[in-house]
Write a structure and sequence with these properties.
The structure holds 2 protein chains of 2 kinds.
Chain A (H helix, E strand, L loop, with lengths): L3 H5 L10 H27 L4 H9 L1 H29 L3 H31 L2
Helix pairs in contact in A: 2-4, 3-5, 4-5
Chain B lengths: L1 H8 L19 H32 L1 H12 L1 H28 L6 H29 L5
Helix pairs in contact in B: 2-3, 2-4, 3-4, 4-5
């Protein structure tokens, strides 16, 4: 006999309920200067040749700013999309699939972008 | 998987009264801007594919970069980039508005309305300004 009480016992507060909220605020504050910097970098690279773009994107300051922008933005958008999924997707299996998909997408974007920046910086 | 299925097997799901949803509220600017914030965030989520493509293309070589430049230079590419610029600035300004609220500022009726208006007017103006700067940086429209 499985009562409603027994199914929720031990599944109480995990004491991390405000973690995503707080991390979303941290990444949003950090995102303000990083977005402005990224916009400035993109405008500075408009219309330049591939060789010039490689040289500028690979220079330490620009590469570090872009890496910070990518990591900060991807973490921010991972939390944001998770929030949207939790709000609108109520069917258990679909929710599980979309939450997994969100994590996979974010990891792939972050890793691919970071790899590209590092490759531009270190050559090869 | 037992946790996931627990709700449906215990029969604890009854029809419960629902709170009123979107349709019963008067359409207000603050409410529309709240929706825009979420929609622009979701758009930017997929827009990161463009950033990743740009960086990977630059790292891959001149041919890959030329393909990226060709797409972004096309009409569709420019439309997407214009929409991306606006979504980014709207989400940025909307985020500042949310941070002000987190600090307990800007909750008075006139302040709320002003912030909502400033978000939309500011994001559209900044988008146009950035595109003008962008075209000037490229030496005029092509």
């Amino acid at each position: 006999m499985r009562t409603p009480m027994s199914s929720v016992r031990g599944l109480g507060a995990a004491h991390t309920g405000t973690k995503d909220f707080w991390h979303q605020r941290i990444t949003s504050v950090a995102g303000i200067p990083l977005c402005i910097a990224a916009i400035v970098i993109v405008i500075g690279l408009l219309g330049r040749s591939h060789a010039a773009v490689v040289q500028i994107l690979g220079s330490p300051i620009v590469a570090i700013i872009m890496l910070l922008f990518i990591i900060n933005t991807v973490y921010h958008m991972w939390i944001g999309m998770q929030e949207i999924i939790i709000d609108y997707v109520h069917e258990d299996k679909l929710k599980l699939a979309t939450l997994l998909g969100n994590t996979f997408f974010c990891f792939a974007i972050a890793l691919a972008s970071a790899f590209a920046i590092l490759k531009l910086s270190f050559g090869v | 998987m037992t946790e996931l299925e627990a709700g449906s097997t215990t029969g604890s799901r009854r029809a419960r009264p629902l709170s009123p949803h979107l349709q019963v509220y008067k359409l207000m600017l603050t409410f529309v801007m709240s929706g825009f914030h979420r929609i622009s965030g979701a758009a930017l989520y997929f827009g990161m594919l463009l950033i990743a493509w740009w960086l990977i293309a630059a790292a891959s070589g001149p041919n890959a970069y030329a393909n990226f430049e060709w797409f972004m230079g096309s009409l569709i590419g420019r439309l997407v980039l214009f929409g991306y610029t606006w979504a980014l600035l709207h989400h940025l300004l909307g985020g500042v508005r949310h941070l002000l609220w987190d600090l307990g500022l800007g909750f008075e009726p006139t302040e709320r309305e002003f912030l909502a208006l400033a978000t939309i007017v500011g994001s559209i103006s900044l988008t146009l300004i950035i595109w003008v700067i962008g075209y000037l940086a490229m030496g005029g429209p092509r």
